[in-house]
Amino acid sequence: MRRVEIFKNGWQFERNGICRDHIRIPHDWAIEGPFTQNNDCQFTRIVADGETHAQPHYGRTGGLPHVGKAVYRKSFFLSFENQGKKVRFEFDGIMSHSEIFVNGHKIAERPYGYSSFCGDASDAVRFGAENQLEVHVDNPAFSSRWYPGAGIYREVRMLLLEAEHFLYSGIRIRTEDIDPDKRTAILRVETEASVDDVEIRLETKVGGKSYSVSGVSPLCLAVAGFGLWSADTPELYPVTVTLLKNGEVKDVQTVNCGFRKVEFDARRGLSVNGRPERLKGVCLHHDLGPLGAAFNASAMLHRLCLLKEMGCNAIRTSHNMPDPKLLDLCDELGFYVIDEAFDCWASGKTDNDYHREYPQWHERDLVDFVKRDRNHPCVILWSIGNEINEQNLPEGAAMARELREIVRRFDDRPVTAGIDQSDQAIKNNLAAELDVPGWNYKPQRYEEYHKLLPGKPQYGSETASTVSTRGFYAFPVVEGSRTYECEQCSGYDLEYPPWATTPDTEFQAQEECPWILGEFVWTGFDYLGEPTPYNQNWPVHSSYFGIFDLGGIPKDRMWLYAARWSGKPVLHLLPHWNWPSRLGEITPVHVYTNYPAVELFVNGKSQGTKFPLYGRVRFNEVVYEPGEVVAVAKDASGNELARTEIRTAGEPAAIRISVDRTEMPANEDELAFVMVEAVDADGIPCPQYDGAVRFAVSGAGSYEASANGNPRSLEVFSSPGKHAFFGKCMAVVRAGAASGMLKLTVSAENLPDAECTIEIK
């Protein structure tokens, strides 16, 4: 029988001649900082941003020290009783150009930092003795367009296996002949094993009834009475697959299965289980803000829950292979996923990116990727690339066809890609080679593409790219491309780069084109690197595109998308109402809502009643005076349905703490997120507070990191102190391995301490 050991603790880490013990995996060495302008400074021209010549870009990859080489070492003991077992190591992702050694014998290598892979150490290990696993990592400069992270940033596992065992990613589960109304389907399982002449047994329990079948691969099993998997009803069923040799059990794996029928139609759009569906999605980079690239399931769960509450139902894994645990979470929570493989093919975007590896590695990387992820019901499309340069080259169509056919060998879900050079991709037939073309920032041309590619389902693979800074508002309020001396972007959600749009423009296009499958907003969260429109301005080093800021605090835009997507009543006012320098000046007030009408009052004086257009109501002639702004939502007859208000704050008087969870398991992988906000004596938020805040954790846990959402902040995330940014910041605390109470104490400049507790159980 297989035994799996996750290699989390006890690693030694060596970099630049300095050794550190007790490193915990997943690990991202670069997130520890410091930020400097010389970390991966790239001298380049970004054509899409309108740059006319090459120039230095200091924060393009986040300004963190991810470039360089390192070695990870881990000792492990194998007892004599394991003699004769096969030993396999599995790696979910190593950034990058990794080489794996066991007792000095090389067992695997993988240049691509996003690939999952394995290595057979059976001939290298010693039983009854200590062994050493050694991982060499090399992150070259100029290898990425954003922050890639560094090191062993995803899980490592050692497996002890019988001679007869399932190969790595050697089980494929498919649901066939699904009838969503009758709740019947055929479960088909194909397996790859280390030896021939073996039997497999397939078992599952559906609707209180047990099903099983035995025989040789492939096996089919008719099941009935299941709940359907969808974004609204993510029903999962564990399927146990057993490998037998001469009747003896040799290996067992359990895989979650979701029964769903996904259909793409060029005229009718997307349907799931026979019901029309619209993709209300966001693009996600793989970094977790202040936690860096080191994957943490509880942090990702926190993010996905925020998106779910907003009404989001889909994720695009931009622009690389995700951690497999993200797909586990999407299966469980109900998100449709576009699973993306590459940001470039043979023609590169940076000097040392994947184009150097593509000729030798693209097939193996893509095969391993599809085989790894094909059992996830959440995956509805395979993306073979994003904005690849071959859109402009004669060989583009042939290369897209090759990649599509590689996918076809192992799975039958449609193939897509994100296209920004649409005219060229249509002209050279690359778009025609895709089952479902995705358009980056082309809402005005959906109708045209529908006519040019009439048999192709289509969608917005990247939309909006609106830029904003949480809490910052600029006057006068204008729509379009704009920059400021303070190097922020206005929170009115009307600013965007030359190639992008407002959310409103995309909303209109989605309404006018019912065949469009939906959209994927760029991006769900701010991410490290790519600080458009300040690509040349140090110390700016993170994006402005997110609906949530780098710490996970919502920007105003979150309520705009919630109004469009969530189906829940939304009534949100912006900006804040603390403008002492603007007394008597026009200060527009916007309302994000899905109510039929809104009447606005400033200190009891009506500013009129207006009707939302694509979720936004604009009161552009409001004159600032301190006091109270009230938005009253009304029905078509003028009856009040709801109201919300913002008020001018007094002097900061206290710290308010909001915790996303009040208890956690006694598990060091578990994290909690703590919002810290300055308020006045009446509890009104103080948006101008920028005092220093310090965090201290005692008891059954530890402090992990914090962020304030300021793209210019050079405060190291792991430092227990941050300056509040427009009155707020976010702290992250980690559970300990033993039960007890975790206490977080927050000390803020000129304010009394505040504290909260979390029970560790």
What is this structure's SSE topology?
Layout: E1 3-6, E2 11-15, E3 18-23, E4 42-44, E5 55-57, E6 68-78, E7 86-91, E8 98-102, E9 105-110, E10 117-120, E11 129-139, E12 156-161, E13 166-179, E14 184-193, E15 199-206, E16 209-215, E17 219-224, E18 237-245, E19 248-257, E20 262-265, E21 269-272, E22 275-277, E23 279-284, H1 297-310, E24 314-317, H2 324-333, E25 336-340, H3 358-373, E26 379-386, H4 396-408, E27 415-419, H5 422-427, H6 430-433, E28 436-440, H7 446-452, E29 459-464, H8 503-512, E30 518-522, H9 557-565, E31 571-574, E32 589-593, E33 597-602, E34 605-610, E35 616-619, E36 628-634, E37 640-647, E38 654-659, E39 663-664, E40 671-679, E41 692-699, E42 701-707, E43 721-723, E44 728-735, E45 740-748, E46 751-760
Parallel strand pairs: 23-24, 23-30, 24-25, 25-26, 26-27, 27-28, 28-29, 29-30, 39-46
Antiparallel strand pairs: 1-12, 2-3, 2-6, 4-5, 6-11, 7-10, 7-12, 8-9, 8-11, 13-14, 14-17, 15-16, 15-18, 18-19, 20-21, 21-22, 31-32, 32-35, 33-34, 33-36, 36-37, 38-40, 40-44, 41-43, 41-45, 42-44, 45-46
Helix pairs in contact: 1-2
